[in-house]
Every structure is written in C-alpha cells, then in structure tokens.
Amino acid sequence: MSDNNNTEIPSKTEEIVDVDPNETSDRNVTSSNNEENSNKPKFFQRFRGKTEDKKPPVAVSVASLFRYATMLDIIYMLLGTVGGLSNGILLPLMIVVFGGLLNSFTDRSADLCKLNFTALAIEYCPKGYQLTASNYLSSVSICHFNETTLDFQGEVKKQTLYLVGIGCASLVLGYIQIVFWSMAAERQTKAIRQKLFQSILR
C-alpha cells in the first residue's frame, strides 16, 4: 500500500507563482490599449500627415538655384546687390552727419559761454550797442562779425544739405535695388515657366 502511494518528486524544484486571473486579463487589456495608442496618429500629426515616410529635402546649391539666369540676369542681380549695399551704407553715414549737426549745436552753446561779449560789442557792433548771450544770434547782421567768429548758420546749413543729399541717394539706390532684382526674378520665372510648358508638351 505504501508502494502505491509513492509519488515522484521532481529533481528540480519549480517556483510556483500564484497569479490572479483578473490581473492577467488587465495586463492583456493594457497591452492592447498601448498597441492601439501607438498606432493612432497624434493630434498634430493628423494635420501634417505622416512625417516618418517623408524623405528629408535635398539641399540646393546657389549655382543650381540660378541655373536659368542668363548673363543679363546676372548683371541685373549684381546691380541690385550694389544698390542694396550702398543703400545700407547710407544709414550709418546719416548717423555720422546727424551727430555732426548735434555737435554744432553743443559747440555753439559752449562757445557762447566762453565769448567776451563786451569786447565783441566794442569791436564789431555799433557804438553803444549792448551784446549779450540772449541777443547774440539776432545781432549777427547788425554787428558784422568776421570769419573768426563761429558761423553757426553756415555750419547748420552745410549739415542739413548733407542730410538732404543722403536722403535723395537713399531713394535712388533703394529704387535701383528693388527694380533690378525684380527684373531678374521675373525673367527667370518666365524662363522656368517656358521650360515647364515645353516639358508638358513633350
């Protein structure tokens, strides 16, 4: 009887894990949900389309970008570039001239503080005329100052003419820049359209 009740004992002990059937079903549900979420496109990908399938754009060189340009188009582009560079130089130049104009104002105020109005009135003004800092500018025509005194009006006029010249040059150079680049772009666009139309007809 003892022989019949003998059972075979495995040589290697196996680990027995108690698994809840509800837990296994939960794992299956979460794994299936993860797969579905990974397959679904994200919110912004719906509008962009599939970005994974798109190949990266090929870089285009400058020579191939202007391969439809003729020699006249290249001349137009060079003239437009020169006009654009010259127009860009005018802004720092205008700042320098405007700084000189401001310096003439500040130098004038400094010189008025240093002037000896009594000596100037005796030397240049009519007898008995009283010269002060407040009436100095209005007394230029009365007192007949010579060139040794500061010509404030002449200095301001010269700086103002410089500013007017810079403004006119800026208008002309900006016009040259826009016109020549626009002409070159229109001519190249026309050439590309003609090539495309010829390839469609073939």
From TrEMBL:
Q: Which organism is it from?
A: Rotaria sordida
Please report the record's description of how this protein sits within the membrane: Multi-pass membrane protein
Instruction: Give me the stretches of Polar residues compositional bias.
Output: 1-10
Task: Give the span(s) annotated as Disordered.
Answer: 1-43
Q: Which domain of life is it from?
A: Eukaryota
InterPro entries named among the record's database cross-references: ABC1_TM_dom (IPR011527), ABC1_TM_sf (IPR036640), Type_1_exporter (IPR039421)
Major subcellular site: membrane
- Which lineage? Eukaryota, Metazoa, Spiralia, Gnathifera, Rotifera
Q: Where in the cell is it found?
A: Membrane
The regions listed as transmembrane in this protein's record are 74-102, 161-185
Q: Does Mitochondrion show up as a keyword for this record? A: no
What Gene Ontology cellular-component terms does the record carry?
Answer: plasma membrane
Q: What is this protein called?
A: ABC transmembrane type-1 domain-containing protein
